[in-house]
Amino acid sequence: MVNWTEDELNKIGSATEVQLCSLRSDGTYRNPVTIWIVRMGSNLYIRAVSGVNGKWYKHTIEENEGRITASGKEKDVYFEEYKGDQIPIDEVYKSKYESFGYSIIETTLTTQAKAATLKVSPK
Protein backbone atom coordinates (compact mmCIF):
# COMPACT_ATOMS: atom_id res chain seq x y z
CA MET A 1 0.00 0.00 0.00
CA VAL A 2 1.27 3.45 -0.95
CA ASN A 3 0.87 6.32 1.51
CA TRP A 4 0.47 10.01 0.85
CA THR A 5 3.58 12.11 1.34
CA GLU A 6 3.26 14.99 3.77
CA ASP A 7 3.69 17.40 0.84
CA GLU A 8 0.83 15.76 -1.08
CA LEU A 9 -1.42 15.77 1.99
CA ASN A 10 -0.67 19.43 2.63
CA LYS A 11 -1.15 20.62 -0.95
CA ILE A 12 -4.10 18.46 -1.94
CA GLY A 13 -5.77 18.47 1.48
CA SER A 14 -5.61 22.25 1.79
CA ALA A 15 -6.86 22.97 -1.74
CA THR A 16 -10.31 24.49 -1.80
CA GLU A 17 -11.21 22.54 -4.91
CA VAL A 18 -9.70 19.63 -6.79
CA GLN A 19 -10.20 18.35 -10.31
CA LEU A 20 -11.23 14.71 -10.41
CA CYS A 21 -10.97 12.57 -13.54
CA SER A 22 -12.39 9.08 -13.19
CA LEU A 23 -10.89 6.23 -15.18
CA ARG A 24 -12.91 4.52 -17.89
CA SER A 25 -12.73 0.77 -18.45
CA ASP A 26 -10.65 1.40 -21.60
CA GLY A 27 -7.96 3.15 -19.52
CA THR A 28 -8.75 6.70 -20.62
CA TYR A 29 -9.83 9.48 -18.30
CA ARG A 30 -13.21 11.18 -18.28
CA ASN A 31 -13.44 14.96 -18.33
CA PRO A 32 -12.59 16.53 -14.99
CA VAL A 33 -15.17 17.57 -12.42
CA THR A 34 -14.50 20.11 -9.69
CA ILE A 35 -15.13 18.89 -6.16
CA TRP A 36 -14.28 19.68 -2.56
CA ILE A 37 -11.82 17.51 -0.66
CA VAL A 38 -11.01 17.26 3.03
CA ARG A 39 -8.10 15.93 4.98
CA MET A 40 -8.53 14.01 8.20
CA GLY A 41 -5.19 12.95 9.62
CA SER A 42 -3.29 11.13 6.89
CA ASN A 43 -6.38 10.47 4.77
CA LEU A 44 -8.31 12.41 2.12
CA TYR A 45 -12.06 12.21 1.55
CA ILE A 46 -14.55 13.45 -1.03
CA ARG A 47 -18.35 13.45 -1.15
CA ALA A 48 -20.84 13.59 -3.97
CA VAL A 49 -23.52 16.05 -2.89
CA SER A 50 -25.99 14.41 -5.29
CA GLY A 51 -25.38 11.06 -3.60
CA VAL A 52 -24.69 7.61 -4.99
CA ASN A 53 -26.85 8.31 -8.04
CA GLY A 54 -24.76 11.29 -9.08
CA LYS A 55 -23.06 10.97 -12.44
CA TRP A 56 -19.45 11.55 -11.36
CA TYR A 57 -19.89 9.30 -8.32
CA LYS A 58 -21.20 6.42 -10.46
CA HIS A 59 -18.32 6.83 -12.90
CA THR A 60 -15.78 7.00 -10.10
CA ILE A 61 -16.85 3.76 -8.44
CA GLU A 62 -17.05 1.84 -11.74
CA GLU A 63 -13.28 1.41 -11.88
CA ASN A 64 -12.37 2.83 -8.45
CA GLU A 65 -9.41 4.60 -10.05
CA GLY A 66 -8.73 8.03 -11.40
CA ARG A 67 -6.65 11.14 -11.07
CA ILE A 68 -6.93 14.25 -8.95
CA THR A 69 -5.24 17.58 -9.53
CA ALA A 70 -4.87 20.31 -6.92
CA SER A 71 -2.37 23.01 -6.05
CA GLY A 72 -0.06 21.95 -8.85
CA LYS A 73 -0.11 18.30 -7.77
CA GLU A 74 -1.47 15.65 -10.12
CA LYS A 75 -1.86 12.21 -8.61
CA ASP A 76 -3.25 8.90 -9.80
CA VAL A 77 -5.52 7.57 -7.09
CA TYR A 78 -7.84 4.84 -5.90
CA PHE A 79 -11.35 5.53 -4.63
CA GLU A 80 -12.87 3.43 -1.89
CA GLU A 81 -16.40 3.69 -0.53
CA TYR A 82 -16.16 4.89 3.05
CA LYS A 83 -18.73 3.54 5.47
CA GLY A 84 -17.00 4.57 8.71
CA ASP A 85 -17.84 7.30 11.18
CA GLN A 86 -19.09 10.32 9.25
CA ILE A 87 -19.19 12.80 12.12
CA PRO A 88 -15.46 13.66 12.08
CA ILE A 89 -15.60 14.15 8.30
CA ASP A 90 -18.66 16.40 8.74
CA GLU A 91 -16.70 18.53 11.18
CA VAL A 92 -13.76 18.89 8.79
CA TYR A 93 -16.10 19.97 5.97
CA LYS A 94 -17.72 22.55 8.29
CA SER A 95 -14.39 23.91 9.44
CA LYS A 96 -12.65 23.99 6.08
CA TYR A 97 -15.51 25.50 4.08
CA GLU A 98 -17.14 27.73 6.73
CA SER A 99 -16.43 30.87 4.68
CA PHE A 100 -18.87 29.62 2.01
CA GLY A 101 -21.80 29.85 4.43
CA TYR A 102 -23.77 27.09 6.05
CA SER A 103 -26.40 26.85 3.30
CA ILE A 104 -23.66 25.69 0.92
CA ILE A 105 -21.77 23.53 3.41
CA GLU A 106 -24.94 21.70 4.40
CA THR A 107 -25.08 20.15 0.91
CA THR A 108 -22.06 18.05 1.98
CA LEU A 109 -23.76 17.04 5.23
CA THR A 110 -26.95 15.45 3.93
CA THR A 111 -27.70 11.77 4.29
CA GLN A 112 -27.30 11.31 0.53
CA ALA A 113 -23.88 13.04 0.47
CA LYS A 114 -22.66 11.02 3.46
CA ALA A 115 -23.69 7.81 1.67
CA ALA A 116 -21.43 8.91 -1.22
CA THR A 117 -18.26 9.48 0.81
CA LEU A 118 -15.10 8.15 -0.79
CA LYS A 119 -11.66 7.72 0.70
CA VAL A 120 -8.99 8.80 -1.78
CA SER A 121 -5.70 6.88 -1.68
CA PRO A 122 -2.55 7.30 -3.75
CA LYS A 123 -1.82 4.77 -6.45
Task: Tell me what the structure shows.
The protein is α+β, with helices and mostly antiparallel strands. The chain has a single domain (6-122), classed as Pnp Oxidase, Chain A (Roll). Helices cover 30% and strands 31% of the residues. The chain has five helices and seven strands. It has helices spanning 6-14, 55-63, 87-96, 102-105, 111-115, and strands at residues 18-22, 33-35, 37-40, 43-47, 65-70, 73-81, 117-122. Strands 2-1-5-6-7-4-3 form a seven-stranded antiparallel beta sheet, sandwiched between helices. A hairpin with a 2-residue loop joins strand 3 and strand 4 (43-47). The longest helix is centred in the C-terminal third of the chain and has 10 residues, at 87-96. The model has no long low-confidence stretch (mean pLDDT 95).
**Quaternary organization:** single chain
Largest sheet: 7 strands, antiparallel
Global structural class: alpha+beta
> Could you tell me the strand content as a percent range?
25-35%
Q: What is Rg? A: 13 Å
How many angstroms does the end-to-end distance come to?
8 Å
Count of beta strands: 7
Please indicate the count of domains. Answer: 1
CATH architecture: Roll
Count, helices: 5
- Principal-axis shape equals globular
CATH superfamily: Electron Transport, Fmn-binding Protein, Chain A
Jot down its keywords.
123 residues; alpha+beta; Pnp Oxidase, Chain A; 7-stranded antiparallel beta sheet
